[in-house]
Amino acid sequence: MEPTTTAIHKDNSWMRRFIPIWSAQIFSLLGSGIVQFAFVWWMTQKTGSAVILTTATLVAMLPEVFLSPFAGALVDRWNRRWVMVISDGAIAMVTVVLVVLFAMNKVEIWHIYVALFLRSAGGIFQWPAMQASTTLMVPEEHYARIAGLNQAIRGALNIVAAPLGALLMTLLQFYLVVAVDVVTAMIAITPLLFFHIPQPVRQDAGEILTPGRVLKDIGEGFRYLKTWKGLLYLMLLATLLNFMLAPAGTLMPLLVTQHFGKGVWELSLTESAIGIGTVIGGLLLGVWGGFKKRILTSLMGVIGLGFGVLIMGVAPAEYFVIGVVGCALLGIMNPIANGPLQAIMQKTVPPEMQGRIMGLTSSVATAMIPLSMLAATPVAQFLGIRTWFWAGGTLTILLAIIGIFIPEIMMIESHGKAKPAVGGSGNLQAELNLATDQDK
Predict the structure, then answer these.
(1) Whose CA, among 155, 193, 233, 288, lies 20 to 30 Å from 53?
(2) Domain 5-197+207-418: what homologous superfamily?
(3) Residue 206 burial by CB count (10 A; 0-12/13-18/19+): exposed, middle or buried?
(4) 91, 187 in Cβ contact below 8 A?
């Protein structure tokens, strides 16, 4: 029998197992960020088309929207260590093909589209496998801190990936810049070959995996969302919040240029403010750990997100610095809002179910982004760009306050202890990813 979560957590050597795997994954994220920047720059230089860039973004979202529930169900059944090895390896192989095409000067736009789709498909396996494995390697009292550090690191990577990519493109031929992602993928894979990750015990582990079984696994997650009101309400709340917050990143260039009358350097300053704020917020959560009631920490963070967006929308044209403050607040509150939700899921969802829940919630969160973009465009066109910022920020604050007064939401952590039964093999809870442009 595989080691249980409790046994692993009592082992004081957990850091010697977790830190190498975790650190190597950070290198992989850095490589992906550099290559992502390189792809965007190459498409911009080659086509200068906003349609091309938008299409590339949507192509990369498709696997997360439509395939994440299936990937999560498979992650719950397969060996998670090998899921990470194979997904990282597959992404690296896709990148190798692009390296060859770039070296031969044979790359076409559709090659980039295919690569983005396949890389995203690999990511929807890798991310839930890593997050679910964290539960089996890290003591429960450190869940929120690790989540905060993850947010801080992602913020730092958002700051350094673009300038580092630009620097490499001045020093190396383009295909060598793309090859960086292959190197960082190998770094991510290496510790996985030497450190064991415990597998959760499933009652139906010996059952033959068929398409019908996978669909049944996914169905268990949907049925649970209907059965447990607290989880369902929180999912609906997070969906509405994603809808309100997601357009801020897309409309930011227009806010900077048309409302504040500024240029590219000021736009880069807003991006840096968000990234630096995310680092600060992540480190704060990593040290503090949040309130004992994690859902309260998260909802306070959501209120802060709303104020950040609202500040950007109401800042007068002559006070650009106020808009930058709003961006910094948005960055700081992003980890405060998201980190505790991840900790709630890791604490309360049985390890054998976490892949499915991550897949379902990721699918819903990502689906809100294109839908909110479609809604925000006519609003910005007919009512003004600032309208979405102050209205979206205000509604975000109100929704979070409403959440505080919904008992089922506020008691979601204690409900996890009751473990209500849902057909099949286990009990479910969800992490709700409140998407901002920094997350995607």
Answers:
(1) 155
(2) MFS general substrate transporter like domains (1.20.1250.20)
(3) exposed
(4) no
Angstrom distance (rounded) from CA 258 to CA 388: 14
The whole-angstrom separation of Cα 346 and Cα 113 is 34
What is the reported pTM?
0.68
Asked if 89 and 28 count as a contact pair (C-beta separation under 8 A), the reply is: no
CA angle (333 as vertex; 122, 284 as ends), nearest 5: 95
Q: For residue 18, which phi and psi values (nearest 5 degrees)?
A: -80, -45
Domain ranges of the chain: 5-197+207-418
Longest dimension (CA), the chain: 66
Mind listing the pLDDT tens digit of every residue in the chain (440 residues)?
A: 334 444 444 445 778 888 888 888 888 888 888 888 788 778 877 876 667 776 787 888 888 888 888 887 888 788 888 988 999 999 999 999 999 999 999 999 999 999 999 998 988 888 778 877 787 788 877 777 787 787 778 778 877 877 788 788 889 998 999 999 999 999 999 999 988 887 766 555 556 667 777 788 788 777 766 777 777 787 788 888 888 888 787 678 778 888 888 876 787 778 778 888 988 988 888 788 788 888 999 999 999 999 999 999 899 999 999 999 999 999 999 889 987 877 777 777 666 667 777 777 778 777 777 788 777 778 777 888 888 898 889 999 999 999 999 988 888 887 544 443 333 333 222 334 444 444 43
Contact partners, residue 260, CB within 8 Å, separation at least 6: 266, 315, 317, 320, 323
Q: Return the number of other C-beta atoms located less than 10 Å from residue 157's C-beta.
A: 21
Look-up of token digits 């505080």:
404
The identity of residue 280, as a single letter, is I
Angle at 85 between CA 83 and CA 88, to 5 degrees: 100
Q: Each residue of 337-350: b (16+ CB within 10 Å) or e?
A: bbbbbbbbbbbbbb
* 139 touches 343 (CB < 8 A): no
